[in-house]
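Changelog excerpt

This revision adds worked examples to the README so contributors can see how folded entries look when concatenated. The first example is reproduced verbatim below.
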Amino acid sequence: MKNKWTTFFLGRVLIRLEGRGIERLLNKFTQAGISTWNIKRKKSGAVYFFIALPDLHKVRKAVRKSDCTISFKRGEGVPFLWKRALQNSGFLVGILFFFLVAGILSNITWGIQVEGADPETEHQIRKELATLGVKVGTPHIFSDRPNMIQKKLTEKIDNITWIGVELKGTTYQFQVVQKTEPKQQVEKSPGHLIASKKAVISHMFVERGKPMVKINQFVDKGQLLVSGAIGKEEEMMVVAEGKVWGKTWYKTTVEFPLDSSLRVFTGKEKKKHALVFGKFSLPVWGFGKADYTQSETEIEKHDLFFLGWKLPFDYAEITTREKENYQRSLSEEEAIAAAKKFAREDIKKHIPVDAKIDEEYILQEKVENGKVKLTINFQVIENIAEEKPIIQGD
């Protein structure tokens, strides 16, 4: 018997055969390579059986030279289904159009819900979402994945501790945990402000207490800057408050090569779009291979939904970018300028956020082994005041 699935896709025909010499004709079919199956004889003497659709012309040729009469009862399989579908093309187009529209509408954002945020924070979140392309009426398959949206919102909005992002069907749901500012201590013990390191006083702003240093005065670490003892005979003890800005010094040594090899993007890229099911990928747009000697491929996947149900495959945008090796050669002056910039960026990581670099002095400069080596002393202006409680008896 023919494989049912094979004959279903190729098509099969039910034949009615009657007359004299039916057995001889069936043997002739076998000799001609015509497969028959499900052979049944009726009481009237007629024989019914199936043949494969591609063998139909062979059967007609064999029957012409016999005393039998042949009739075709019905056809089964994909070719006949396709023929019927074409005859009812309007109905078929309507079904396809329905699934197409339902699929498109199922992958458009129709709702954004924000829970756990006050009105001001919610407004800020919705504003940031609009800049990210997440808004009602836009396809969410072209937006970032929920984990990337979560990361970007956490970085851009200061007053949230955590935000959960979940895409349910056509609705984005955001669960927000806002920062709770710690209650400031109402009372502090009386204290002084002392120097946290060696410095030259640049300027100061004293809110409470008695200044004990002057502008341009050099101070050592631990030296009293603002006293919490005030009054004619310093009989009153208060909490010294203020900021004392001083010039401090940081020394760093950096090396920068004159010649270096870099891998850079050329700007050429090729994009492909595909449907991904597990490890299997079905391309839908952007065929052909990216003919790059060196390249880097980035795959961005998006979930697909149909009527609120997540489909078992994803939409993927595959970007292949060309890379090339670039040999960079710098003059001594260019390498020194690059080394200074690198040193500045590095020193900013080690000083307070509110501090600023005032001056820089190159203590040593030399070129050896194809590298520029610099020893730089940075003069930084920073707040050097730190609190020190007044101990009874001081």
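The second example, added in the same revision:
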Amino acid sequence: MLSCRDVAGRASALIDGDLGARETAAMRLHLAMCRGCQRFLRQMRATRDLTQAAVKAEAQHEGEDARIAAILSELHDAKPSGD
């Protein structure tokens, strides 16, 4: 049976689906019996989800900034020269 240290070391691989069937089964067996590792894995999943959401929000924000800059550039270029 895996130790808590083993589970902690392989938790990312489990979350990412990078473990084989035997390793996944061993991890799930340990997790079925160990509340501390269950909490640890939940925290890792929450961290992953929050990080992905932050990256997505930042990408959207950068896209909005680019659109605003393009609009402002077009407005500047289209401004009538009444000088």
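Reviewer comment on example two: The CA atoms of residues 46 and 57 lie 16 Å apart. The mean pLDDT is 89.
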